[in-house]
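Pasting as-is:
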Amino acid sequence: MKKTIKLISALVIVLSVSAFTIASTNIDEGYKIGDVAEDFSLKNIDGKMVSLANYKDAKGFIVIFTCNTCPYAVMYEDRIIALNNKYASKGYPVIAIMPNNTVKKPGDNFDAMKQRAKEKGFTFPYLIDEAQSVYPKFGATKTPHVFILQKGDGLNIVEYIGAIDDNYKDASAVNTKYVEDAVDAMLNGEEVSPTETKAIGCSIKA
């Protein structure tokens, strides 16, 4: 009888752990290609709240999770500015979001974000995911991590996820500009290819 009880207890524990593991792997996996991205409302460096719905005339968005303190993100800042300069007027503005826990990364706090944006002359919103509630929905894991959205029938459809290009070290040595190729394809009514690449950067600090 005791052996039976121990066996049942052991099975309950195993099943509980298995259920937890399955649940954990299914939580916050983030968007996949073709998913509808939920809108959000986050504070911009000017203190105003920004949502995708604010951009009535946009055809889509280049959403980039980035920060001040990651060397990879810093190396991409000029390229992010260039993306907004090239595509905002064509209907695809950059929306930059800082996802890090600012207690762990004080160099990414709101005042530091404002200072960095001023120094670099950011021409796009630089939003703080203060509650860290937006980046898990997207499934962002790195800074920088890009999600390109296409507007259609009032929805924001995920069309590309991944890196900005194939060379974080040297902009002049880039062979494939993933984000530019994706947005150009959408502007021309063509299929995006590739739809996913591996984001290279620092892990987001929760």
